[in-house]
Amino acid sequence: MGLLIELIVPILLGLTGLLVGTLLERKHYRSIRAREEALRHIMVFNEKRPPLSFTGQHFHLVQGSVVVSSDYFKNIAASLKSFFGGRLTSYETLMDRGRREAILRMKEQAAAVGATAIFAVRLETSTLNSIGGRGGIGSAEFLAYGTAWSAQP
């Protein structure tokens, strides 16, 4: 009976962690989609300079950053996948959420100053720590920054 409990408890904890992680990721994606829709009016460009008609207006440096950590199950799935080769789809969702969240935070900062466009947008990503020194992603920082344009005096 003791051996059975020693097997069942870790499995139940693992399944609970997987379920909670999946639900939290879905909730975050719903939040991202709603905020992206609310901020659609702010245009984002990677061009270095705005059109000449925008000169003489008010410009602001805006940025958004986020640190996202990978959960235990994504790391296990990525480890198994990297053993056989191929796309690491479990990390792709992590990277997608991080980039989109950083851009949203930058757009929210631009909206706070009344901006309608952001130019010279750049994205940077860095791994903050790795799992067990094996190169797996533990957490990553995403930074989006650019120059917001505001027509307001």
Automatic annotation (TrEMBL):
PANTHER family on file: UPF0145 PROTEIN SCO3412, UPF0145 PROTEIN YBJQ
Highest taxon of the lineage: Bacteria
InterPro entries given in the database record: UPF0145_dom_sf (IPR035439), UPF0145_YbjQ-like (IPR002765)
Key words of the record: Membrane, Transmembrane, Transmembrane helix
Protein name, UniProt field: YbjQ family protein
Recorded family membership: Belongs to the UPF0145 family.
Pfam family, one: YbjQ_1
Segments traversing the membrane: 6-24
